[in-house]
Amino acid sequence: MEYSVDYSEDGYFDEAKDDKLDGLITDALKLSEDDNKKIEIDPEKMKKFSAIKQKLHHIAVENSTLMRVKMLPNSTKMMVELESETLDFDTEELKNKFIDVLKDSKSVSFEAKLNGKIEVTVEVDVSK
User: Fold this and answer.
1) 75 class by beta-carbon count within 10 Å (0-12 exposed, 13-18 middle, 19+ buried)
2) What angle separates helix 43-63 from helix 15-35, to the nearest 10 degrees?
3) Residues 48, 124, 88, 13: is their CA dihedral positive or negative?
4) Does this model's pTM top 0.85?
5) Is-contact 106 123, C-beta < 8 A?
6) Average pLDDT of each block of 10 consecutive residues along the chain (128 residues)?
7) Which of the listed residues 97, 99, 115, 122 has the most CB atoms within 10 Å of its CB?
C-alpha cells in the first residue's frame, strides 16, 4: 500500500482525507493480521503512528514537499517519507514536531537522492 500527497503544489491538510487514510491503513493492517496470525496490531501504537503522520504532514506542508505513506506487504511497519530539495526546521514549532517524531518513531533516516533531493524516511512499527 502506498499513498502520496504532493505539497509542493499548494497542498493543504484535509481532515476528512486524513481520517479516510487512517481507516485505509487500519483496514490494510487488519487484512495483513488475518493473513498472518502471528501479527497483532497494537491500537496505542496505531494512535502514535497517526500522531507522527500528522506532525510529518505539518512539516511537509511548511516545506512544500512530497509526502508518501507506505506499508510493506505482510508487515506492520509503516513508513512516512518526505522528499524535497530542502527541508527546513526554521521555527521552534517545526523543530519540536521533528524532535517528537524522532522520539516516537522506530527509526529515522536521511538519504540524498540522485535527482538532487533529500528524502527523510520515518518508520513506525504498529504491532504488539
Assistant:
1) middle
2) 140
3) negative
4) no
5) yes
6) 60 58 68 61 86 90 86 80 89 93 94 91 89
7) 122
